[in-house]
């Protein structure tokens, strides 16, 4: 599991210095069945 979660959305209230996410938990949804990283906004996406 990732130790640090990075985020570039500095308008989010959970954004912290160093592009860190300070939220206690993270909830992720998908609008479609992704098969490549270009179909997501996740830079670390890998198909399973």
UniProtKB/TrEMBL annotation:
Name the record gives this protein = DUF1540 domain-containing protein
| Ranges where the DUF1540 domain occurs | 5-45
* InterPro entries per the UniProt record, alphabetical: DUF1540
- The organism of origin for this protein: Paenibacillus paeoniae
